[in-house]
Amino acid sequence: MEKFDHLVVLMLENRSFDNVFATLYPKSAAFDGLDGTESNPWHKPDGTVASVPVWSDTGMPPEDALMPDPDPGELFHDMTMQIFGLDGDPRAPATMSGFVDNYMRQPPADRPYDPRQVMHHFTAEQLPVMSQLAQAFGVSDRWFASAPCETWPNRFFAHCGTSGGWVNNGREGFPHRYPRLLPTIFRRLGRHRKSWKIYFHDVPQAAALVELWPSIPTRFRLFEDFLADCAAGTLPSYSFIEPRYYPDLSLQSPPNDMHPPHNVVPGEQLVADTYNSLRQGPRWERTLFVITFDEHGGCYDHVPPPRAVPPGPPYSAGFSFDRYGVRVPTVVISPYVPAGSIIRPPAPRPGEPATPFDHTSLIATLQRRFGLGPPMTPRVASAPDLAAALSLERPDNPGPQQIEASRAERDDQRKLARQRFNHHQETLRHPAMRLPTLLAQGAGHAHLAARRAGRR
Predict the structure, then answer these.
(1) How far apart are CA 124 and CA 132, in angstroms?
(2) What sign results for the dihedral spanned by CA atoms 278, 283, 285, 286?
């Protein structure tokens, strides 16, 4: 764990492992992808049942970059059906057979639902940035979302080791029954004199955590500041990067979070920009960079989530968080990671199953690397860290000097602005988020302006 001084995490939105990396390598015991025979049933309203197989396209037709469109279901009950089938009984074995049925039972949208959309997956050629980095360093096919829940609970697991008991983003409860006084890994870092920053584009979701409010003026910075910190060699011990969640009409910038149905190509560009800045910075050999997604967003994955250690109460929604969410794509990047690695956590003893990675593995990695005291929650205590991924004795894998993203047709920003908000966007717009968001945006822009003027 002494092989890095800077952990950088870029957390994107709502893609499953199979959606992004299904065919990165041939399916085998060493790589748990797709072989093309997987399918889901569709129980139609007329009583018939159709089989909907997994599929992909050649090239990158514009509509493929937006799939699935409309957005799949992400609520707790949606994910229960996706994982356990049409009946959605969590007492039964997980079958991963309810993705199509759940998608076709979503509320009416501005366009028809096509059952094939949630069974689509990208190819390595369609996502060249993610795929090149996964092959140049390592990809984990054993990283699960922390809970079978939507964005906010999973992001809070990444920051706090728990969601505080809530399973949805919903305004009727989580996270707007303030104060949300969940202890965070950021406070632990500060108490042990380790630096941290949250870099964002438009609205930092992490600002919902009240414990972080006093730090917003000094620790929340725009993504442009991240690029500058990379170049200057002044990255903090922990950097957490949030993507752009909304279209920016003034900058003609689309969302780059990869949340369906947002175009995946701007997300690829964000990944490339982040990697290139780190790779060309003076602290590259001492940096560990993790790209992951908060949850699967209703996109098909074939691997059932295993049981999980509960994080501890409260369990206000009646769910004890004793199982993980669906697998999410995760790339682990460092000069100490061998090229072509398939990263899995080590088994505690020969013949015993390993505890999979989840978002609390980020906290576990920080705690064990920097000596941040006892585990924050029982889930963090059980989480494997990333030490095993850094298996080279020396930083002998510098990786590509530069990664180039593919180009896509420019999105119509005004059309994007008229799209129906997803649950995450709706929750970010809640009045309870206005003050911390305005404070973060004001501090971020002021610091960037002063930096450009040469005062910092």
Answers:
(1) 8
(2) negative
Tokens 């064990």, residue located: 368
Residue 20 — very low, low, confident or very high, per pLDDT cuts 50/70/90?
Answer: very high
- Whole-angstrom Cα distance, residue 73 to residue 224? 33
- Find out whether 133 and 333 touch, Cβ atoms under 8 Å: yes
- Residue 242 located in a structural domain: yes
Alpha helices in 336-398 (DSSP H): 360-370, 378-382
* CA–CA distance, 216 with 209 (Å, rounded to integer): 10
Mean pLDDT of 331-350: 94
> Taking 90 as the threshold, does the pLDDT of residue 168 lie above it?
no
Helix (H), strand (E), coil (C) string for 396-409: CCCCCCCCCCCCCC
Is the separation of the CB atoms in 335 and 284 below 8 Å? yes
**Burial class of 190 by CB neighbour count within 10 A (0 to 12, 13 to 18, 19+):** middle
DSSP-derived letter for residue 167 is -
pLDDT at 410: 55
In one-letter notation, the amino acid at residue 428 is L
> What is the Cα–Cα distance from 286 to 2, expressed in whole angstroms?
9
In the block, tokens 């469109």 appear at 69
For 255, the token pair is: 């969302």
CA distances for 132 relative to 6, 125, 253, 364, angstroms? 22, 9, 24, 27
Q: Do the domain assignments include residue 137?
A: yes
CATH of the domain at 363: 3.40.720
C-alpha 56/C-alpha 64 separation (Å) is 9
Whether the predicted pLDDT of 355 surpasses 60: yes
In angstroms, the CA 157 to CA 361 distance is 10
The whole domain housing 324 covers: 6-42+122-452
For residue 235, the one-letter residue type is: L
Instruction: Identify whether the C-beta of residue 137 lies closer than 8 Å to the C-beta of residue 271.
Output: no
Q: What secondary structure letter does DSSP report for 116? A: T
Mean pLDDT score, 440-444: 93
As given in the structure block, the two tokens for residue 40 are: 């889901």
* 393 within 8 A of 366, measured Cβ to Cβ: no
The residue to which tokens 């510098």 are assigned: 398
Cis peptide before 148 (omega within 30 of 0): no
Q: What is the pLDDT of residues 382-413, one digit of tens each?
A: 999 999 999 999 999 999 999 998 875 555 55
Is 169 part of a structural domain of the chain? yes
Distance CA 346, CA 386 (A): 10
| Number of domains making up the chain | 1
SS3 category, 279: helix
The Cα 383–Cα 368 span in angstroms is 11
Neighbours of 248 (CB within 10 A): 15
Does 1 map to a domain? no
